[in-house]
Specification:
17% strand; alpha/beta; 7 helices; 5-stranded mixed beta sheet; 9 strands; 4-stranded parallel beta sheet; 220 residues
């Protein structure tokens, strides 16, 4: 039996746990904090370090997409390196089935899942901090400027979490930012296929020693 290992972002925790429970998949998971995304160089180094530490595996799976080019150049000398061929986790979740066109994120649309609502840099957390620091009048002006380019707040309906439990958060975020709320159908199919070992065209399957060069199909 192949020895498989998953290196994953905590921003995908609900999706991965949902899939593993649903499909009875039991493989070790190394969770990396979402804050690493703020520095692609640090994220790249952290993932590469974990890859180096687990060269006894047959396959190392990554839940990451391109993620600000952080994945470019990643390489596993002795194992296969498996990862979604997408720009980021939002693009993964917007995918709607094999053989169908990819749905690209809409400009001006702010997508979120439950994990985004508990992140310390989430919309509500950010807005509350601005209000506390600058007051409601000046604070609201700052918030209006920050989110001027957004018109829609879109909770992603992946089935991996109870969207009703974040409804209050979404409503509060919409009030702060003056965005309309429009839930968006989404899917965990890409991660599910990868975790089940179904490496289709939308999954990169790199040979030992082969570095990540191209991520999303649109880049090919």
């Amino acid at each position: 039996m192949k020895k498989r290992l998953l290196i994953a972002c905590t921003m995908q925790l609900d999706s991965i746990r949902f899939i593993m429970k649903k499909e009875n998949i039991k493989i070790p998971v190394i969770w990396l904090e979402r804050s690493l995304h703020h520095s692609p160089d640090k994220l790249h180094k952290r993932i590469q370090d974990e890859i180096y530490e687990h060269q006894d595996a047959d396959e190392i799976l990554l839940s990451y997409g391109l993620c600000g080019n952080a994945a470019l150049g990643l390489c596993s000398q002795n194992t296969r390196l498996i990862m979604p061929a997408f720009d980021d986790c939002i693009c993964q979740l917007l995918y709607r089935g094999s053989g169908k066109d990819r749905i690209m994120p809409e400009k001006g649309c702010f997508y979120l899942t439950r994990e985004w609502t508990i992140d310390r840099l989430g919309i509500v957390q950010q807005c509350e901090e601005i209000y506390d620091r600058y007051g409601s009048v000046d604070g609201q002006k700052m918030i209006d400027e920050i989110y001027a380019g957004y018109h829609t707040l879109a909770p992603l309906l992946t089935g991996a979490y109870d969207v009703d439990k974040i409804r209050g958060y979404v409503d509060k975020a919409a009030k702060y930012t003056k965005m309309c709320v429009k839930p968006q159908k989404a899917s965990v199919e890409i991660l599910e296929n990868m975790l089940k070992g179904d490496y289709r065209n939308d999954i990169l399957n790199l040979q030992p020693g082969e570095a990540v060069r191209r991520m999303s199909l649109s880049m090919k």
